[in-house]
Design the sequence.
């Protein structure tokens, strides 16, 4: 009897924490996007972006190939400084597709970019990792693999992002091989490849080809690069070279100016927004000059800094406004749009972390973002990824997935019969309408404790961070890898071994 | 030298934590409200509310005066059950003013209700209080006074709310006297009076008259009652009697259906929204039947419950959608609108608390709410008010105050000169534009720590809750009461003494 109960509870628990299989591969939005600015304001921002590109210019450093592509397209090139006639950069973006499919190793996890679709992805780029048990430390390949697994297990994360954290125990020139392998082996979702050097981008593509095949990849998107701008108004050759590798292969790029206003742009939001718009148009234009129609995402990562200390800050009101506004510029360009994330400067998963993260995420949701990575795990301004924070954020993505479903009004939802049954002044707990709906009526956030104080006290007065600790430990215990064709796995491992043997380790 | 530094630091600290004097008495919104639903959906919800009032009906219990007012106005009265022809209740709301001023003891703190204005108020109604030092306990009058002081000290809280917490050390039939006195003595902002019995509402008015004068109050709003509906579709006489007392004196009422969908309404949002709309219209109509033109707020408090345990839940996606939708119905009625708050089921000021609170507040801000009380201090589904939570929430109100300012686009904000000065690829930290703007460019949330990990560690690895503890202790240490005419103070104390002597203590 006890054994049966335990088995049943275990089964129920597993279902409740690993419903990823039943979850949608991506989301479809059914609520309108918020329109912060009117036509006049938007036009003025667009004109200012055109002024920046025509008068101030933008540099592409140490990449003569990219400069030549722009020269051939009719831009003015003065050394490494590019200038565009008004409207020229925008016109070059016109061949980028408005919507497209990204293919996953598991076709049931293919995702759609653009239009009314929304894709959540995990964090990207932190050298440190933290958890309640071991504290803050450098991230390792094991951590990286763990976060791939946690992303795979979440029903609310659709995209593995890329460098979820830096596996700093692996040589700088080799870790991309282990990261791409982890994405392909421990998950079956879409992901990003390396952008830290063109040959690493090529390796990422080569590994993807082992899984998807070269012919398929000529026609279909399976891997992306995340391209940052060296704001203000500079692209470095590392980024443009990686961009060119992905675009030439007809694979994806996410062009993301990361701008802290006051340092990498003027401190005022209109300048910040117009500059980001100018910068991202040039990146998008380059993808199209490399290969017309190459899939690309209009990205933005606009935030603030503490102007006394110089520290980056997140979830601030100024970043909310900038996010809302640039989303409108993106929509007017008609491209898939990336912004937002569960972002915070906090060092641990405390009240600050979730206040800032929720504030950073909400405008992205209201703005109608299509792609939100950095959606799970961020701490310490991106320097650290947290295990507890990760599972909190993922659950919060589930809540937002419900918000964008909106409200459907029909006879059943209006529940006229429930009033006929219950009458006036009696509760609705037992009426048929409630019984029919109670299982699916509300999104259930398991980490949010709503129990009475006494029950919560008896359970040890755990705060959300402590409950989150229990959650991720359990998830990793129960993780099972998705199936993979053994010959493909072998080919991947063989490729990695050969690549690793071919050069010495480099550590910077 | 050391003494001078200390003195300077003290002065600076006091300025930074008590800038209430320089803060605006209320906010004016410069961003559009979010429109979730289209015309067809809104009409359908309104029609369903009319169906509820015409077919199902609504009860007013044990208040023959209110029933008679509705009978005279042409409603159908069957025992205690009221029914309205379609459109009738709505038509009765038409004499309520769309905008009005609420007067504070300090005229500089007068606030505006309705239109584009927004007023933040503190929490309301919790019997328990908690802080990091002493833990959870019953609230006392000292706690009540402390929260009045903390509200007064915050630059971002404009309204004292009313029963910020229940001073359970004072007899039930007398505590309203001490509460109203605390509002009048320890603050100079607007506040609400008692609604727990009509004679206590009368006492609240009497004390207000000592300060404002009877003639002034015949023409001007200085005190409000917060009227809850006993949903579904019932008003109790305690509430309607208090409502009538305030309305008859031309003072204010906030009509607030508090509905947990699944219990006090059907579980589906369209039913919840239509029912709340029907309920609130009847309360508003009653204020107008008592006195045409009496100021009133269209309130709503729509949330969810854990349908397995029956526990109330906050900041959920379903409550977000309901808040966004009912705000549209309120705007179509053209009345000042109350919704939202920093609401949570969490027992302490942890990640859950600020995640849920931020999620509960954001839709109210996007929806264009005019009055948001419960904006500071809420914990444990309203059963507890927290000192640490209070100061966190108040600071977050400051951030939202910045959001609703929106983005102003002009030549200075576009910062063309900054680019001419900095050029391409160099940072903007030192340019004139940044130097001119850096002090006021960004809202500064002092409780949010953005310092480097090492600095944060050296300062003791404090989480936000611990920093908030330091904050409220300091605020209370530095609190100084606003001035009051000694003769008025004496008259208030005399009134209270006489009232307290006139009856025995009652404890329930």
Sequence:
């Amino acid at each position: 009897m006890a054994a049966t109960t335990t088995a049943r509870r275990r089964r129920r628990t597993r279902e409740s924490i690993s419903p990823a299989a039943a979850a949608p591969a991506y989301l479809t939005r059914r609520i309108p996007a918020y329109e912060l600015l009117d036509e006049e304001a938007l036009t003025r921002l667009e004109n200012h972006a055109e002024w920046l590109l025509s008068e101030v210019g933008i540099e592409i450093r140490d990449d003569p190939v990219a400069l030549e592509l722009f020269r051939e397209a009719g831009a003015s090139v003065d050394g490494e400084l590019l200038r565009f006639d008004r409207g020229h950069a925008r016109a070059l973006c016109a061949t980028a597709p408005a919507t497209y499919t990204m293919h996953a190793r598991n076709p049931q996890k293919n995702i759609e970019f653009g239009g009314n679709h929304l894709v959540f992805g995990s964090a990207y780029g932190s050298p440190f990792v933290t958890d309640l048990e071991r504290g803050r430390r450098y991230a390792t390949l094991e951590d990286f693999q763990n976060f791939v697994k946690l992303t795979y297990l979440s029903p609310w994360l659709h995209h593995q992002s890329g460098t979820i954290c830096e596996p700093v125990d692996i040589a700088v020139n080799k870790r991309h091989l282990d990261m791409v392998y982890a994405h392909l082996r421990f998950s079956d979702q879409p992901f990003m490849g390396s952008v830290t050097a063109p040959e690493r981008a090529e390796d990422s593509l080569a590994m993807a080809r082992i899984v998807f095949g070269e012919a398929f990849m000529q026609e279909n998107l399976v891997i992306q690069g995340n391209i940052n701008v060296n704001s203000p108004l500079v692209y470095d050759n590392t980024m443009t070279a990686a961009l060119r590798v992905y675009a030439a292969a007809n694979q994806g790029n996410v062009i993301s100016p990361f701008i802290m206003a006051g340092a990498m742009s003027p401190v005022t939001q209109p300048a910040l927004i117009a500059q980001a718009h100018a910068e991202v148009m040039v990146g998008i234009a380059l993808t199209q000059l490399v290969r017309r129609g190459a899939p690309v995402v209009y990205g933005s990562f606009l935030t603030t800094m503490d102007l006394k200390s110089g520290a980056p800050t997140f979830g601030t009101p100024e970043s909310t406004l900038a996010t809302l506004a640039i989303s409108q510029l993106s929509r007017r360009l008609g491209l898939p749009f990336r912004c937002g994330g569960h972002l915070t400067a906090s060092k641990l998963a405390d009240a600050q972390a979730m206040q800032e993260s929720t504030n950073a995420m909400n405008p992205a949701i209201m703005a109608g973002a299509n792609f939100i990575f950095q959606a799970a795990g961020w701490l310490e301004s991106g320097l650290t990824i947290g295990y507890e924070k990760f599972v909190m954020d993922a659950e919060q993505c589930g809540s937002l997935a419900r918000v964008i479903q909106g409200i459907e009004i029909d006879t059943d939802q209006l529940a006229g019969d429930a009033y006929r049954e219950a009458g006036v002044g009696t509760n609705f707990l037992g009426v048929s309408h409630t019984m029919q709906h109670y299982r699916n009526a509300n999104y259930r956030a398991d980490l949010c404790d709503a129990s009475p104080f006494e029950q919560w006290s008896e359970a040890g007065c755990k705060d959300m961070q402590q409950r989150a600790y229990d959650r991720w430990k359990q998830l990793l215990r129960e993780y099972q890898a998705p199936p993979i064709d053994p010959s493909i796995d072998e080919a991947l491992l063989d490729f990695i071994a050969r690549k690793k043997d071919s050069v010495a380790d480099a550590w910077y």
About this structure: Residues 269-290 of chain B form the longest helix (22 residues). The first strand of chain B starts at residue 27 and ends at 28.
